[in-house]
Write a structure and sequence with these properties.
The complex is a heterodimer of chains A (about 800) and B (about 140). Chain A is an alpha+beta fold and about 800 residues long. Chain A is about 40% helix and about 25% strand. Chain A is globular, with a radius of gyration of 35 Å. Chain B has a six-stranded mixed beta sheet with strand order 8-1-2-11-10-9. A five-stranded mixed beta sheet of chain B has the order 3-6-7-5-4. The chains are: A alpha+beta (about 800), B mainly beta (about 140).
Chain lengths: ~800, ~140
């Protein structure tokens, strides 16, 4: 029997749609079932689903489908009745059946026939599996499903009453019409603004409200939960884990988060790719995990949540993380990166190398991934829909890829600006802030060797003029102008415009292909007055003005400076010791500078000491600490001896140096960490490189008891330093260590929270960025947070002591 | 065999396009300029909510620019890339022409014009140039 005719065609289409839905649910349930094989309701549901498919196939006369589903059903029936146990091969077999059914459905959709493939292999194995168990009660078992199916139909009826199927084409059409309505509404509102007619006024207000509601409603009809894409992932993960010999647990959070269907379509493939990637080279094999002390089962987490009119999707694993050095090496070997450039890359930038086409760090190319195709496609696909991809990775702890995606593409908020007598729209997502420029105040554009820049909260922002970029007539000089700060590809720049109008919901319309070559526009829209306005493509504008291509290094440096406010401007003491001709230490840590005649140095307790202010001052030679090996080659000791005296309130120590050079007050520009003990890193001070002394190390290496406070309090106060810069942490730590506090460090917000959870921290000293995010967490509000603006040791210790007294009244603190 | 053409004038030349490809004819519409776009693109017009690119036929054919104060007419044609408006000097009648009078464009035709003129119908009193609309709106081809 074969069905034909228009009506039957509709029936078949229904059947196809319904069967596909059933199959995707079946896959989910089967994977679930593998974990909980004894879950009776789940098993019953699986059984029902496959039974429904079988029933319809038989009805429509698809014999092959019916046979295959029947065999699968028999196996499930045995399982349900407890006559056999579920094992992974069996699940695999049933999943394979699902694949076969899908193939047949596709063939039916395309040709109306079940297709030439008889799936003899699957059928045979199914049959064998079904017969493997003595099955005397089969006829009885067959009865049960019949009853179930009547239940099913009853149930199905109630759901169809509440829901109807609507073609996607119709929804798209409705969306278009709503777009038109929004535009017409805008026109009416503008028309109304110009006159004093109360009844027109009331009507247009009403129109405004209804249009907004309608717009929201229609947008909602096009919204789909992201779960519709995630549904197929458990299967993907399971199959991959099996074939790779790994154990992977998939956790999904926020499957109900809704996105416009066009966006769902667009992120489907990138998501699957990212998940496969995480399974393949993110999560390690169980042995490997055991070696690094992790549970054998790897965890793959999918999270989706709304944030600021966008949807964030995170794909995280607790695997090995990305080896940045390996990545760099690979990039150099493949010729994407020059060696000197690699040294300059920040970790974050280095991580972005994974988006480079043709780069793969997988040690072995598997059939799943590692062929260097993919991440670049993921990135370009996400960026195509106005999204952003971000990777974070910690070696040994895992990798998280974060996608930020707009909710919808059709109607977006935008800022209307004018330039050269034309109106343009800037998408709100690219807009950071508006700045009013006045020529005669400090709010003006300055020039660095001809390059226009603006001082924005302490860092330089490259600036361009929209008129210049677009070749419009220049605006008259001298007037007050506005600048919009835009962001694209993680970089920020200012664009001077003639005027700023207002923000509007705009309907994005595509441009004809004649304008595809012009990379300055993302589309066009129709304004309230019926005229067309172009929507600026912010990345394109950045490229046209040369800001995105060239300013990379500049903005990165600016971003780093911003991340280290504590170390921005410091008074530094410069001195010389041994082969280190230019050493630096923050002046705020220094108590005094002293000179002692060599004759006054005495020996006491095996140490060099001098009598100093009625006390005994311990002296340590910096050269001995930094270069213990070249002690013999020391030059003739100077007389008098120059020493830097550090003081922790109770005790003093003198660090002997060869010569005090200078005190410099300036912004430390370039930073580089070092592995060398006794040094924190190097930086440029006064156009020359200086090494920053790790005071904590120097003093600790020379005198063990320095950090033991003279009058030890019952409990040492725990202070957490939260600062993204290791350099700043080192500096702050020096001061706190010396004052006898127990000091912890954290670089990121997550680390900070982890530390707070693990230890009973008394006080947090946090860089301003981290302090802000920490204050947003309610649970830590009882812990005082200090943000050291400038680096004044006395003031900081004083306020710490103060805060500590406030926190624990009974505890007497050391004087600072 | 006859064919129907919508006719128009550009710089004194008499053109025709297949009547079935014409969507509508409009008088001059307010236009939004597109900075940095190819010169032949005059701007964008709002055609009942649809954004349509307008191509200046004088520039497209390499003819002298339209004198100041003369408003062009919009001849909106359907192409594979959606509707595109051709800015012409004047709209003519819809004519039935005899296929027998058709001829390939002459060899000595200007190269730029030759690219978009498909052929010539020898009418009694004048010549009707047949415009290839698909090639006309393919602005990228000019640069090549």
């Amino acid at each position: 029997m074969k069905v034909g005719g228009m009506q039957d065609q509709d029936v078949i289409r229904e059947f196809l749609v319904e069967s596909r839905e059933n199959l995707s649910r079946l896959e989910l349930e089967l994977v679930d079932l593998e974990k909980r094989p004894k879950d009776a309701p789940l098993l019953a549901s699986v059984f029902r689903t496959i039974h429904t498919i079988k029933g319809t196939c038989g009805f429509l006369g698809y014999t092959l489908l019916e046979k295959i589903t029947h065999q699968a059903e028999s196996i499930l029936c045995q399982l349900r009745d407890g006559r056999r146990d579920l094992n992974p091969p069996l699940i695999s077999l049933i999943l394979e059946t699902v694949d076969a059914i899908k193939k047949i459905l596709t063939s039916i959709e395309q040709s109306g026939e079940e297709g030439p493939d008889t799936f003899a292999g699957v059928k045979g194995r199914l049959w064998n599996a079904a017969q493997a168990e003595p099955d005397p009660e089969a006829p009885v078992a067959d009865k049960a499903p019949e009853e179930k199916s009547t239940e099913d139909t009853a149930h199905a009826q109630t759901t169809t009453d509440a829901n109807i199927r609507v073609g996607v084409g119709l929804l798209d059409k409705l969306m278009d019409l709503v777009g038109e309505l929004v535009l017409t509404r805008n026109q009416i509102l503008q028309f109304n603004a110009g006159r004093e007619d109360p009844s027109l006024n009331a009507t247009s207000q009403r129109l405004n409200l209804i249009t907004t509601e309608l717009q929201e409603g229609v947008m909602k009809t096009r919204m789909q939960p992201i779960g519709t894409v995630w549904n197929k992932l458990p299967r993907v993960v399971r199959d991959m884990a099996l074939s790779l010999g790994k154990q992977i647990r998939l956790e999904m959070d926020g499957a109900g988060t809704e996105l416009d269907r066009t966006i769902i379509e667009a992120i489907k493939d990138p998501l699957v790719h990212l998940v496969r990637n995480a399974c393949d080279h993110g999560i390690e094999t169980p042995d490997c995990r055991a070696k690094s002390g992790k549970p054998p089962e790897g965890r793959l987490t999918l999270r989706a949540y709304h944030e600021g009119g966008q949807v964030n999707i995170e794909i995280g694993d607790d695997g090995a993380g990305i080896d940045i050095d390996l990545l760099k090496k690979k990039a150099i070997a493949d010729g994407f990166l020059r060696e000197d450039a690699a040294l300059k890359l920040s970790d974050r930038e280095a991580l972005n190398l994974i988006f480079h086409a043709g780069l793969s760090t997988a040690r072995a190319v598997t059939n799943i991934s590692g062929r260097g195709v993919g991440m670049d496609v993921v990135k370009s696909n996400i960026e195509k829909i106005g999204g952003i991809v971000d990777v974070a990775s910690r070696p040994g702890e895992g990798t998280t890829v974060k996608l930020r995606i707009p909710l919808t593409l059709a109607i977006i908020p935008g800022l209307v600006i004018t330039s050269g007598g034309e109106r343009f729209v800037i998408p709100q997502v690219n807009l950071l802030e508006l700045i009013r420029l006045e020529n005669d105040s400090d709010k003006r554009v300055e020039y660095v060797h001809g390059a226009p820049v603006y001082r924005r909260r302490g860092s330089l922002l490259p600036v361009t003029w929209l008129n210049t970029v677009l070749g419009l007539k220049p605006s008259e000089a001298g007037e007050v102008v506005s600048m919009v700060v835009l962001q694209a590809e993680d970089r920020q720049f200012g664009v001077v415009v003639d005027g700023i109008s207002d923000t509007q919901e705009i309907v994005v319309k595509p441009l004809g292909k004649q304008l595809k070559g012009v990379n300055a526009y993302a589309g066009a829209t129709i304004m309230g007055d019926g005229h067309v306005a172009l929507i600026l493509d912010v990345p394109g504008i950045g490229q046209r003005s040369g800001l995105l291509a060239e300013s990379r290094e500049q903005t990165r440096a600016a971003a780093e400076r911003k991340a280290e406010p504590a170390a921005q401007q410091q008074r530094l003491l410069l001195f010389r010791a041994g082969s280190f001709t230019r050493l630096a230490v923050p002046l705020s840590l220094v108590s005094r500078l002293e000179e002692f005649p060599r004759s006054s140095i005495e020996r006491a307790g095996g140490h060099d000491v001098v009598q100093y202010r009625d006390r005994i001052l311990r002296l340590i030679s910096l050269q001995t600490v930094l270069e213990p090996d070249c002690l013999g080659s020391a030059a003739e000791p100077a007389d008098p001896v120059q020493a830097i005296v550090f003081n922790n309130g109770e005790r003093s120590i003198g660090v002997v140096v060869d010569q005090i050079l200078d005190i410099a007050e300036e912004v430390v520009t370039v930073r580089q960490g070092t592995a060398r003990a006794g040094l924190l890193g190097s930086g440029v001070v006064g156009k020359q490189v200086a090494d920053f002394l790790d005071l904590t190390y120097v003093i600790r290496s020379a005198s063990e008891d320095w950090f033991r406070p003279a009058a030890a309090p019952e409990r040492t106060l725990k202070i957490l330093i939260a600062d993204p810069s290791a350099f700043s942490r080192g500096l702050i730590r020096g001061g706190l260590d010396m004052a006898g506090y127990s000091v912890l460090e954290a670089a990121t917000c997550d680390e900070t929270i982890a530390a707070l959870e693990r230890y009973s921290v008394d006080i947090v000293v946090a860089a301003s960025a981290l302090a802000d995010s920490l204050r947003a967490h309610n649970e830590w509000q009882h812990i005082p947070v200090l943000a050291p603006g400038d680096f004044d040791r006395e003031a900081m210790l004083h306020s710490i002591a103060h805060l500590a007294i406030a926190t624990s009244n009974q505890q007497e603190l050391q004087p600072a | 065999m006859t064919a129907q053409f919508s006719t128009f004038f550009v710089g004194g030349l008499f053109f025709g396009v297949d009547v079935r490809s014409v969507q509508e004819v409009l008088c001059f519409q307010p236009m939004t300029r597109v900075p940095q776009a190819p010169g032949v693109i005059e701007g964008l017009i709002n055609l009942r909510g649809q954004i349509v690119t307008a191509i200046d036929m004088r520039r497209r054919l390499g003819l002298p620019v339209r004198p100041e104060g003369e408003s062009p007419m919009n001849m909106v044609v359907r192409t594979t890339d959606g509707a595109v408006s051709l800015l012409v000097d004047e709209i003519g009648d819809v004519l039935d022409v005899d296929s027998a009078t058709y001829e390939k464009p002459p060899e000595n035709l200007d190269r730029q014009a030759r690219e978009i003129i498909r052929g010539v119908y020898k009418m009694q009193d004048r010549l009707l140039l047949v415009l290839d609309t698909e090639r006309t709106v393919d602005v990228a081809a000019i640069a090549a």
